[in-house]
Write a structure and sequence with these properties.
alpha+beta; 2 domains; 4-stranded antiparallel β-sheet; 3-stranded antiparallel β-sheet; 15 strands; globular
């Protein structure tokens, strides 16, 4: 039986059976995805859904109105307040302490994202505490984007930070077994080591969040919030993808600038059932943030779009990992 996922406000929900979709207030314009589709489709364009949920004269519901801005201006009460404010402003300006509002807002976002990243929590064991004195790796290529230092390549390690081996899943049965037992695993796309040289390894989310540490010393897997800091700095999720994708290597080359230096490549992914999809078309990267019990947040780039898409997917899927310096 086909399992459907529904996109609402940039987030993926599901899976649902065709019967369960009847209770989800689906319209003709609702975006739907199921296993085997390359991209999301309008519900009206999927025959089974159209025949089951819609009549020929059904009308899509109106889109929600844009959320009004909550921004406010602080108005002084009287002339004395204005005078004091001007004097303080001139003093701060003279001393060089007055920040550009956008810079201050961006700095606050960076700090908030770092504080809420579970990858940077206190060591959970004596062994972790003792190993914390080891120096961070400084020979890994990175690029400064805003206030963040990102690796310029996808992760390609086969051991955790403490030296323990991360299991490799070569067969479909092995990959699916690691998902069912919620254990860490990695693979090459199509089990071809040549793809590892190009795209790095694909990891399930259980490897991402393993307490032994997937990222090298001095780095961590970015949280959902830290991914948002990146896309906000690059002008917002609607256009940041153009600045993050390499100029070549995609199905349609020449649509991106890679002006950020992120150098995102279309490494595809491995479904939790072991099937590989979308190499050359899409690039997928895990965050360290869980959405709920069996799903976690990730970002993906599309070969013919400048957006950076944010969705959650089953933790058993295999995505690329890009690390951020602590």
């Amino acid at each position: 039986m086909i399992q459907y996922f529904v996109a609402r406000l940039g987030e993926s929900h599901g899976p649902y059976t065709i019967e369960a979709l009847k209770d989800q207030n689906i319209t003709q314009d609702t975006l739907i995805w199921y296993e085997g589709l390359i991209d999301w489709k309008r519900a009206e364009d999927i025959e089974e859904i159209r025949m089951t949920l819609f009549t020929p004269i059904s009308v899509p519901e109106n889109p929600p109105a844009e959320k009004p801005s909550n921004s406010k201006w602080l108005m002084p009460a009287d002339g004395i307040v204005i005078t004091v404010f001007v004097i303080m402003f001139l003093i701060l300006l003279t001393l060089g302490f007055f920040l550009n509002p956008k810079e201050a807002e961006y700095a606050d976002k960076v700090q908030e994202a770092q504080e809420h990243n579970p990858e940077q929590s206190e060591p959970s064991s004596k062994a972790e505490s003792e190993s914390a004195v080891e120096p961070a790796q400084t020979d890994i290529p990175t690029i400064r984007i805003g206030a963040q230092d990102w690796m310029t390549k996808n992760l390609n390690v086969s051991t955790f930070r403490n030296g323990d081996v991360i299991p490799q899943a070569k067969s479909t049965e092995e990959w699916e077994a690691f998902w069912e037992t919620e254990e860490p695993a990695w693979c090459y796309y199509e089990n071809d080591p040549a793809n590892g040289e190009k795209y790095g390894k694909l990891y399930n989310w259980y490897a991402v969040r393993d307490s032994r540490g997937l990222a090298p010393r001095g780095f961590h897997v970015p949280s959902d919030g830290e991914w948002t800091v990146l896309t906000d700095y690059l002008g917002g999720a609607d256009i940041a993808g153009y600045k993050m994708k390499t100029k070549s290597g995609w199905y349609l080359d020449g649509t991106s600038t890679n002006s950020s230096g992120f150098s995102g490549l279309p490494g595809g992914y491995r479904n939790y059932n072991g099937t590989f999809y979308n190499e050359g078309l899409y690039g997928y990267w895990w965050s360290s943030s869980e959405s709920y019990s069996f799903f976690a947040w990730f970002r993906y780039l599309h070969y013919n779009d400048g957006k950076v898409f944010r969705f959650d997917n089953p933790k058993g899927n295999g995505f690329s990992v890009r690390c951020l310096r602590d």
